[in-house]
Amino acid sequence: RILNAVTGRLSLRPPQAESLSKLVRALEAAPELLGHERDVSAILSTLKAEFPTLEDFEREFPSLCFALATGVGKTRLMGAFIAYLHLAHGINNFFVLAPNLTIYNKLIADFTPNTAKYVFKGIGELAIQPPRIITGDNYDQQNILGGELFGEIRINIFNISKINSEVRGGKEPRIKRMKEVLGDSYFNHLANLPDLVLLMDESHRYRASAGVRAINELKPLFGLEVTATPFVESTRGPVPFKNVVMDYPLARAIEDGFVKEPAVVTQQNFNPADHSAEQLERIKLMDGIRVHEETKVHLLTYSEQSGQKPVKPFMLVIARDTTHAAALLGTIEGLFDGQYKGKVIQVDSSKAGAEEEEMIRRLLLVESYTEPTAIVLHVN
Predict the structure, then answer these.
(1) In Å, how far are 136, 179, 187, 193 from 183, measured between CA atoms?
(2) Cα-flanking dihedrals φ and ψ of residue 67, to 5°?
(3) CA quadruple 216, 217, 219, 224: dihedral positive or negative?
């Protein structure tokens, strides 16, 4: 009943609803997930029988990965997980990990009532008593000894890249050193909670980091990972996650109409054998940009005729690897007399620190007409 209520009230799309029902199946098959007195290897054996793709939790606690294509709605799914776990099992404490500052700020906004993409819109119980949002910026101002309303949900949102920067050289992160009203650190307060559930957004970005090893010590009941990229890069190529229970790749998202269907651009009387690989790449890019410009005109015309707000189109270019992406960036910025200079962003693992933050800031604003980005480059 609660599964159906959450699915309906949050208007979950089929892949989100399927993911939530898989979490429910996991809890029904292994109710020990909801308590600390358990044998993690026994739970793994039980769930492997339930989910053929599950091989290992890859952590000291049970952890399940839900791999959903970008654009299907992973943040809404995290909201559905929290709402279900609270309403069905009385779980009140959640720890949400963001990969960087930009997504950290976006998650805080999406979990805050009366914002544009509020994840709990439609859940009546959470309208009466909204969750308390505790962040990496205000956790040390929380009265954690008292002042907690009965049944209040507490969602702790932290930026893993900040935790990683604090543990370099083997140092303890500030969250572990902070003395709080309990006479102990906030970290220990969280670790002592009987019902802490960990949610990891874009977990492929920080899976092997020092900060995640520190998170092991939080002793959560279980972890839920959401990502569109269920593998980590290594020198030998991509290493797939072993704890995937839901895999909804881009091909299925396109097939089901959640992501736009690609169109094939062709040219009459064109013989690829007449051109070098570099020339072919350049021709493909120019053809793609022409289609992009044509689309922009159609959208503006429609907007003027219908009185609707204009929709900004942008072009996605997929590169083989980060070196190829950097070369494509140079090529594109040189096309059409430099018309696209400053309007292309390269979104991949070659960026770090402030460059990565700026890249993600621009990516999140790509739909806005005030943001100049027209072309997004990323690695397959």
Answers:
(1) 19, 6, 12, 16
(2) -95, 105
(3) negative
Give the C-alpha separation, 170 to 168, whole Å.
5
Angular region, 207: left φ>0, alpha ψ -120 to 50, beta rest: alpha
Give every CB contact of residue 107 below 8 A, 6+ residues apart in sequence.
75, 96, 98, 157, 201
Q: What's the CA gap between 167 and 175, in Å, rounded?
A: 10
Question: pLDDT digits over 198-252, tens only?
Answer: 999 988 888 877 777 778 888 999 999 999 989 887 788 888 999 999 999 988 9
- Give the Cα separation of 259 and 250 in Å (integer): 8
- The pair of three-digit structure tokens given for residue 6, joined into one six-digit string: 């959450």
Parallel, antiparallel or unpaired: strands 375-379 and 344-347: parallel
Counting other chains too, the contacts that 262-266 makes at CB distance below 8 Å and 24 or more residues apart are 263/291, 265/291
Bridge partners, residue 66, by sequence: 226, 246
pTM of the model as a whole: 0.77
Q: What is the DSSP string of 195-220?
A: TEEEEEETGGGTTTSHHHHHHHTT--
Q: In this predicted model, what pLDDT tens digit does every residue of 26-55 receive, in sequence order? A: 999 999 999 999 999 999 999 999 999 999
